[in-house]
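STRUCTURE:
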């Protein structure tokens, strides 16, 4: 049984690919459009004097994309990852896989395919936002966009690993997804703590806006911690899954 092929077929037949790509492509289109036309929409609504809006800019367009896409995108990624990684939620499926392969053989293609698909979906949305921003407003800094996208991609991989860890603690798809999201929220709040924030994975999310706006690349600490946390969460999930009795 080729579990890699099984996983690819699963995400295609369940339309997981279209869900993720649809979310990020939608916001990739909406971000530049919002940055360009929101002032006109507000003006026509008759509340232009009540709302202070920044002028359209490539930086604003990319910021709009990332800010909106990640809010919905990470939520979708968490539930999609949980549906794949919390396979013990269905005892008959769990027994089927566990009697034919090791936990490492079961989880590895699921981690890689889900994380890879999520990152590819985010990159596709970024490319669309970049092109549309160039056409409507101006060209964003390409190198900064590339660096910022790498930071977000690393954060997405961590999100999948955290959901995998929660799936090894609780055999419930909604529970694993919500615990993973809750952990990310706690990390986001902790980013506000002085001296600690720049080392946390959530610091990478704000890095996209900062880099596109011309900021310096100062995220090595957060990158290191995120990579260690991703590896630790993945390793722990495999160990805990191996010890779980179905």
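SEQUENCE:
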């Amino acid at each position: 049984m080729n579990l890699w092929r099984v996983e690819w077929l699963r995400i295609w037949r369940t339309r997981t690919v279209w869900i993720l790509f649809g979310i990020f492509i939608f916001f990739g289109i909406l971000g530049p459009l919002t940055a360009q036309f929101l002032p006109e929409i507000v003006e026509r609504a008759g509340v232009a004097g009540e709302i202070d809006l920044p002028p359209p800019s490539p930086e604003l367009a990319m910021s709009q994309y990332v800010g909106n896409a990640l809010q919905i995108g990470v939520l979708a990624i968490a539930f999609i990852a949980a549906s794949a990684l919390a396979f013990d939620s269905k005892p008959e499926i769990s027994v089927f896989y566990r009697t034919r392969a090791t936990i490492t053989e079961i989880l590895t293609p699921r981690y890689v395919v889900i994380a890879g698909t999520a990152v590819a979906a985010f990159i596709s949305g970024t490319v669309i936002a970049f092109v549309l921003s160039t056409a409507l407003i101006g060209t964003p800094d390409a190198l900064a966009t590339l660096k910022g996208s790498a930071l977000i991609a690393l954060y997405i991989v961590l999100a999948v690993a955290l959901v995998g860890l929660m799936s090894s603690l609780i055999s419930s798809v909604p529970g694993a997804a919500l615990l993973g999201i809750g952990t990310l929220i706690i990390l986001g709040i902790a980013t506000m703590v002085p001296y600690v924030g720049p080392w946390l994975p959530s610091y990478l999310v704000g890095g996209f806006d900062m880099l596109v706006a011309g900021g310096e690349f100062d995220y090595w600490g957060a990158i290191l911690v995120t990579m260690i946390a991703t590896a630790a969460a993945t390793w722990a999930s495999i160990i805990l899954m191996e010890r779980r009795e179905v």
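REMARK: The chain has one domain: 3-243.
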